[in-house]
Amino acid sequence: MAGQKMLKFTTVSRDMPEKRSADDRTEDFGEIYREYAAAKAEEQASRCSQCGVPYCQSHCPLQNNIPDWLRLTAEGRLQEAYEISQATNTFPEICGRICPQDRLCEGNCVIEQSGHGTVTIGAVEKYITDTAFDEGWVKPIRPHSERTESVGIIGAGPGGLAAADMLRRQGIQVTVYDRYDRGGGLLTYGIPGFKLEKDVVMKRMAQLEDGGVEFVLNCNVGEDLSFDAIRGKHDAVLIATGVYKTRDLDNPGAEADGIVRAIDYLTASNRVSFGDEVPEYNSGELNANGKKVVVIGGGDTAMDCVRTAIRQGATSVKCLYRRDRNNMPGSQREVQNAEEEGVEFVWLSAPKMFVDDAANLNDGRAISGPLRGVVVDKMRLGQPDATGRQSPELIDGAHYVEEADLVVKALGFEPEDLPALWGVDGLEVTRWGTVKADFTTGKTSLDGVYAAGDIVRGASLVVWAIKDGRDCAAAIMDYLSQAGAVAAE
């Protein structure tokens, strides 16, 4: 009986894949978790309670059929498990690696609530799809028939690629435009290899190219090619640019040499891992080797920066965050990994100014020479803000100097001003600068133009971008079908 394979959470303990030791993993940028063996994957999948109301599924943005593919894995029916997983998720091997499962599926697992430890959903998901690639179960994209309609997608990140996959499978001619020299967006250049090795992303890129998706890379829309030209070439357009504008600091000395943006720092590191020549890395500008590093921020990007700095050979790495551990937005799992690797978290702290000499603290002078430190204000938590989190408040007179040779700003991302950048009339944006789009279809104020992912939501999770890309692809198919029906009349 299939049921005999499941509900083993009372006798089988939660067991994550083996994690490489901190000393071992900080020597390279390889992923830190090893792969499950088949028997271990089956064992851990068998812990699923197969509950009647699967909260893991309902709290997954993609509504993945998690209990079904866990049961199939427990029964050794791995190819079927992959097919079920792939049916709702374009990139399960990526989500299995970088989704914050502790806040989504695993954080809402019923057996976790009863004290038995959540099912290791993410690790099993990763194992299923990695095995599928190894066994040749990941099939090429081959539409049953070709269609004449074409769609232009601006942005080769997870949202744009998910839409490209869905549209191409239905025979649509798809062209993806991206500013970088490789597709993948932040999957390629923003997320370090220790969380997502780049060959994983490149395999999906190769699948899309082999399936007939055309990529126009090194293309800055508004400079190399106008938005109107893209719109004129295609029957529909999807804007999936993500958000790349860094939230900045206005503290005295914030423009000094030695203070860099997280996106620049992470991109340089990832380019080096590809073997690219990166002058800013070689010069030391975007390289933490031998330096005292301070990262400002408390999200997942900040975690990526501190852990990258450790691997680059920083002499010390400290993370300043204005709230406490319980109120930080980043994954607690990532904080634990960072602490194991030697990162020091300085909670309830915010930058006051940047100095070139500790003595400058006394007379309030900021930078005039090389960066030597950050004047740090100590904070306390006050009343909750609109999000429900306690607001940080300054403690008067409580400040000190934190020595630093390199400061990385990881304060989050905001949307670029696309209408101005692209010279587009009529593209409506919200008061936050994101593209104004229908919540379910992604339809914008321009006919035949859709938008998906962070450029609509603001900075969010990869899994939400995948969902938005898939939803927009469905809406675009409806739009093209309606346009075709009108043309045929």
UniProtKB/TrEMBL annotation:
**What are the residue boundaries of the Dihydroprymidine dehydrogenase domain, all occurrences included?**
26-136
Entry annotated with the keyword Iron: yes
SUPFAM superfamilies annotated for this entry? alpha-helical ferredoxin (SSF46548), Nucleotide-binding domain (SSF51971)
The segment(s) forming the FAD/NAD(P)-binding domain are 151-469
Please give the Gene Ontology molecular function terms for this protein: 4 iron, 4 sulfur cluster binding; metal ion binding; oxidoreductase activity
* Basic and acidic residues bias locations: 15-25
* Pfam families according to UniProt: Fer4_20 (PF14691), Pyr_redox_2 (PF07992)
Keyword Coiled coil, does the record have it? no
Segments carrying the region annotation (Disordered) are 1-25
Report keywords, A-Z: 4Fe-4S, Iron, Iron-sulfur, Metal-binding, Oxidoreductase
Name of the molecule in the record: Glutamate synthase (NADPH) small subunit
Species annotation: Loktanella salsilacus
